[in-house]
Automatic annotation (TrEMBL):
It comes from Dentipellis fragilis. Keywords: Repeat. The keyword Signal does not apply. Coiled coil: none annotated. This is NACHT domain-containing protein. SUPFAM superfamilies: P-loop containing nucleoside triphosphate hydrolases. Residues 292-458 form the Nephrocystin 3-like N-terminal domain. It comes from the Eukaryota. InterPro entries: Goodbye_dom, NPHP3-like_N, P-loop_NTPase. Residues 45-167 form the Fungal STAND N-terminal Goodbye domain. Pfam families: Goodbye, NPHP3_N.
Amino acid sequence: MTGFAAGFFSSAPTIVSSPYNKPSSRTIRPSKLIQMADTQFVEMWKTAIEHYEADSKINIADASRDFADILTVDTLLDVIDDEQKKFKEYRRHGEKLRKTLKPVLDVVGIVAGVAGEAVGTAWEPGKAVFLAVKLLVNAARDVNSRYEIIVDLFERMHNFLDRCHIYINNPISKSLQGRLVEVLAHLLLIIGLVTKIVKKGKFNDLELFAQTLFQKDDSITNALQKLDLLTREESLTVQAETHLVSHEISQKVSKIEQGQVDAELDKCYDWLAAPDPWVNHNAAQEKLYEEQTGQWILHDLQFAAWMQEDHSSIWLHGIPGSGKSVLCSTIINALFQDCKPKKSCAVAFFYFDFKDPSKQIFRSLLGSLLGQLSSQSSGASSLLKKFYAMHDSGHRQPSLPSMLDTLWDILMIYDQVYIVLDALDECLEHERQRHLFPLLTILVSSDKYHIHLLATSRNELDIDGCLRTRVTHIMNLGESFIHKDIELHLATMLQNETFFCTLQHKLRDEIKDTLLKGANGM
């Protein structure tokens, strides 16, 4: 929907996305909207506006000047109440009138939301019909029979319009959209004719008006019959059910195709046989004694620079037990949150682990990176499936060079890739020297790929020699950094543990200070 319709029908039931109800990314001038719309529908609606203005003697543009802030059905009805409550007869009929108008206006709102873009004029169908309803009520001028006429008319129209609900919540075809434009056009025509009669005071008796409605040549009768025909249940049901079945079949085919794609990717992942890094990640998260543990790094200037620079690398090193893996898990969670709204951004991570032989070798790292990165982009997953097919659909193990080649291809797909590697020192030493360090050198040195690399480890000589002169940032996770997390944990424990709560505040501070000094950053 565009303009008025987008805000006007926000309270209406959700409409399934279709080519006709996707919001525009920018404001479009009426002249361009007309170019986008169907000429037949534009002429149909233009004619409806002209007929309404001729019958009612009301210029819609002039009458709408005070209408801009009326954005919902309830707001419109409230405005009508405020303007009409000074009239005695309205006070008698107002509640009934509101109850009669509301269901019709609700249906109009939904229908206009779907049909509006086919018309594409500055005057969306919903806005015109709503304004016409308000002006019709204004024309009643505190005459009892006129309010009754409006109630009777809208009860009849609701019976017709309510049929439209059967297909509104499904994607709308061009032919059905055209039918909706016709429905709204005839609705406006009817309101214009009745406004003309009410303003003239031609029928101030409800029974006489009802009799006139069914005279063979009466213009209102003809218009109501046309509205009945346009919304005839049998016709709309056939079209709607046919369209719904087609849509359901399309959805089922898409699900089957997606299931086949997922099954094929599962075979690729099984073939890579990479260990699950989430096991280590979840274990690290479970060690978080406090929710705020490690959050300090997200506000560190060096870390912020690493995240924002186009191509960056950071090495975090610290002594054993300094909480590097727990800190890594905090960083990884933050990266996933940061990348979530971005179109071409991926996160991959790996925890080397001396307790798990499968997580100490380079092949496991490569397989894990390939699996994770291919799961975050259809283009990347296509490359993995191609790689799988080249190896006899998984009947041959890939070589390390071929895995690296595929990794480079996948990295080229993304605008940004964050790679987090924890505990480089827990990768087997000969694996580090032969395979890991060459990979790290390319990742931190080549500007061909938009990579942000973060690695943690103990400060081992060989790791220092590989990274110190190449990475853009280095952080020593010494006592000053880890001190914050230890202090937070101790403060919480001393405050919440039953035994410590009984101690004097001064004694608790002494205990905390003693433990902090003895922790030595661990």
